[in-house]
């Protein structure tokens, strides 16, 4: 009993001694001014041992970062080719290439009709022994259909699908005669192509003029009974040597435009 009392007293004395020894240090810690960061931010909890923290903070990459695929350039939109007034070119397949053929036929027909009227004095319908000088609603239905078809074709209403692509131009850099070349190259013209710059686009325009000329001359002849030249008070029924030079020039021009192959080509959406 006495021994136990002595042990308890010794432990209390030692504990008091430790508290008295630690009391000045704790008072110094309390009196020490705290930094400003402790006021704004709460103090971090005691960090665990370095071994556990390193194992806890160790990260593993489960998925690799995806590499960005190269950006594909969008294809440049193709220029839309022209279409007819009624949008019928896709249905009946009437392209500018077809219209070019119709225009060539119209140019030959118009030139031949002018030359025939100048020599014989008869218009197109009179040369075909068709009745003229009547109201237009009494004309032959087939003739009226032909006039309507010609007018629609001349204004591109049937569907003039296609886009003109010209041949590469010669340019001014070819104006000097290179060795072994001729005079056409010196003038900036193509050595292989036609002499004049008459493209298929120009030929198409002239063909439309010929179609309009035929249509209106037929309408005038149906109503008045006079041919195209007689409606313009030009003398007809004379030898070819006495024909007006302007009439001969028009005949020669339409013949030349119909037979001369123009440069360039017409392409559609499928061919481009």
TrEMBL record:
A single Gene Ontology biological process assigned to it is: photosynthesis
**Which InterPro entries does the record associate with it?**
Chloroa_b-bind (IPR022796)
Major place of residence? plastid
Location in or out of the cell: Plastid, Chloroplast thylakoid membrane
Task: Report TM segments.
Answer: 101-121, 141-159
> Which UniProt keywords are given for this protein, alphabetically ordered?
Chloroplast, Membrane, Photosynthesis, Photosystem II, Plastid, Repeat, Thylakoid, Transit peptide, Transmembrane, Transmembrane helix
Domain of life from the UniProt record: Eukaryota
- Cellular component aspect of the GO annotation: chloroplast thylakoid membrane; photosystem II
The record gives the membrane topology as:
Multi-pass membrane protein
Say if the entry is tagged with keyword Nucleus: no
- Cross-referenced Pfam families, in alphabetical order? Chloroa_b-bind (PF00504)
Q: Which family does it belong to?
A: Belongs to the ELIP/psbS family.
Query: Its biological function?
Result: Seems to be involved in non-photochemical quenching, a process maintains the balance between dissipation and utilization of light energy to minimize generation of oxidizing molecules, thereby protecting the plant against photo-oxidative damage.
Q: What is this protein called?
A: Photosystem II 22 kDa protein, chloroplastic
């Amino acid at each position: 009993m006495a021994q136990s009392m002595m042990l308890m007293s010794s432990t209390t004395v030692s504990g008091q001694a430790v508290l008295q020894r630690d009391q000045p240090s704790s008072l110094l810690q309390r009196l020490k001014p705290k930094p400003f960061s402790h006021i704004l931010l709460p103090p971090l909890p005691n960090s665990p041992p370095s071994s556990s923290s390193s194992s806890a903070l160790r990260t593993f990459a489960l998925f690799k970062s995806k590499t960005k695929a190269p950006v594909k350039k969008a294809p440049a939109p193709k220029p839309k080719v022209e279409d007819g007034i009624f949008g019928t070119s896709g249905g009946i397949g009437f392209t500018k290439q077809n219209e070019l053929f119709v225009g060539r036929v119209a140019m030959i027909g118009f030139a031949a009709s002018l030359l025939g009227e100048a020599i014989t004095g008869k218009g197109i319908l009179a040369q075909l022994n068709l009745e003229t000088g009547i109201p237009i609603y009494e004309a032959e239905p087939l003739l009226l259909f032909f006039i309507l078809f010609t007018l629609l074709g001349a204004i591109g209403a049937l569907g003039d699908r296609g886009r003109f692509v010209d041949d590469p131009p010669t340019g001014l850099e070819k104006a000097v005669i290179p060795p072994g070349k001729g005079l056409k190259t010196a003038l900036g013209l193509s050595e292989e192509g036609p002499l004049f710059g008459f493209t298929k686009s120009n030929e198409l325009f002239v063909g439309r003029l010929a179609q309009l000329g035929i249509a209106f001359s037929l309408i005038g002849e149906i109503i008045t009974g006079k041919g195209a030249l007689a409606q313009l008070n030009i003398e007809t029924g004379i030898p070819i040597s006495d024909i007006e030079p302007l009439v001969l020039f028009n005949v020669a021009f339409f013949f030349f435009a119909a037979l001369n192959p123009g440069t360039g080509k017409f392409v559609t959406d499928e061919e481009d």
